[in-house]
Amino acid sequence: MTTRNMTIPVAPGDGIGPEITDATVRILKAADPTLEFVYTTVGMKAYENGIAAGVGEDTWQAIRDHGVLLKGPITTPQGGGYKSVNVTLRKTLGLYANMRPCISYHPYVKSIHPGMDLVIIRENEEDTYAGIEHRQSDEVYQCLKLITRPGCERIIRYAFEYARSHNRKKITCMSKDNIMKITDGLFHDVFDEIRQEYPDIESNHMIIDIGAARIASRPYDFDVVVTTNLYGDIVSDIAAEVSGSIGLAGSLNLGAGAAMFEAVHGSAPDIAGRDIANPSGLLMSAIMMLVHIGKADVANTIQNAWLRTIEDGYHTRDMFTSELSKDLLGTQGFADHVVERLGRQPLNLKHTDFQNNELSQLPEYKPSVENRAKKHCVGVDLFLNWEGESRDPEALAALLQEAATGTSFALKMITNRGVKVYPDGNPETLKTDHWRCRFPAQIDDDISLEIPRLMEKVNQMGLDIVKTENLYTFDGEAGYSKAQGEG
User: How far apart are CA 239 and CA 245, in angstroms?
Assistant: First the structure.
């Protein structure tokens, strides 16, 4: 075992965070006395100190100095004005790859899927987690879903490299591109491009809804799953729970310059301070951290002691069953039993043999500057907040047609919540106070500079424009979606 001292920044977090962090750090210290820890400020303590982002400067400095963070679960206050600390840390530090192993420890932890062993690899920075939201009218709120080609390429290539280096045989991409054909369609398209470079790995695509259902019912069909941010968050929780308990699941957040390790579960304030939380999720994350920083020998020692503890029937409340468990333990009592078994190996569960840095190899990403598409503005969507004339789309269309007179645009369509309501709308369609009005250009020239003139005329009609989206083609292909009901 190495004797070089190493300092690890630790953010205990909120709710059960301080309890499970204390238990985890005690185990780490017992396994390797050369480890040192510096505690930093995140979450509620930071908010209470007036730090709106929820991350203290001491945390940023510690990550700069040491390149890692072991973080307990965080409570994000409800309501406006507070952003998720987890998302802030991941995005600010460029931690684009989130890896979450989901393993069954049957029969020592009750599971409906004995032998389950899959890995969820989740894009960690974009999608709806960009957190770009607006209220646009009394009735309508929006959240923007941002998917980028660089984001897709980086996470998908990481998934294939991870699978290859860990002898995983199959990767499944999950998206919802039957509905979100442009954003999720890009993720699927990039997956299809990159999979050609890895003929040694079986690969397929599934729509996310049936994919999530299959993870819950037939997880043996999967080996590695790669998906976007929101879907990855959901399916990793499903996979962790059906494997036995979400309390056992850890995760790695990895970027080019730093790594953060955290349990998958939340801060569980309802059980905070009661010494009943399972520290295993954070401990599994800490084990991945040890591998990352070059202490795989310590990681193996702790993992094997943990496996032996659950084999011996010493369980926390979420694992406890009368037929499988020997003793019901609290947070600290469970940690005591893991410490007691350091140096011992499991009798039946497979003992571990991590190798240094095996979880942390990021493929090099070089953005392409060749073959840029020819971009051409062909129209504009104007989004209006309008409640006049009993919300009759025909009345709105008459105003817009008058406004477009003398411009290079003509009104083609009005939608409400994405459904076409003009022309030939259905009276049964619910109509809110938020309308998308599509104006294609009537000339072939680039008309982007004429859009302000159209907007001025619409404003002169007393109509409230709350948002605009230019309509572009890329190499002649439309870069915008049709409406539901549009021919």
Answer: 9
26-39 tens-digit pLDDT: 999 999 999 999 99
Q: Rounded to an integer, what distance in angstroms lies between the CA atom of residue 277 and that of residue 331? A: 5
The number of beta carbons lying within 10 Å of the beta carbon of residue 406 is: 10
How many residues make up the chain in this entry? Answer: 487
Q: Answer whether residue 464 shows pLDDT above 80.
A: yes
From residue 390, alpha-carbon distances to 59, 173, 228, 396, 424 in Å are: 54, 46, 40, 10, 17
Convert the pLDDT of each residue in 343-385 to its tens digit.
Answer: 999 999 987 788 876 666 677 776 665 678 899 999 999 999 9
CA distance 324 to 110: 8
Query: Would you say 375 and 474 are in contact if contact means Cβ atoms under 8 Å apart?
Result: yes
Query: What end-to-end distance do the CA atoms of the chain give, in Å?
Result: 68
Place of tokens 């190499």: 475
| Cα–Cα dist 325/323, whole Å | 6
Which residue has 């308990």 as its token pair?
245
β strands within 89-157, DSSP E: 97-103, 117-123, 133-135, 141-143
In this prediction, residue 131 has a pLDDT band, given cuts at 50, 70 and 90, of confident
Give the confidence band of 81 by pLDDT, cuts at 50, 70, 90.
low
What are the distances in angstroms from CA 459 to CA 96, 403, 409, 413, 454?
42, 9, 15, 19, 9
Alpha-helical (H) ranges within 95-207 are: 149-165, 183-195
Strands 224-227 and 170-175, sheet pairing: parallel
Element (H, E) at 398: helix 393-404
The per-residue pLDDT for 370 is 66
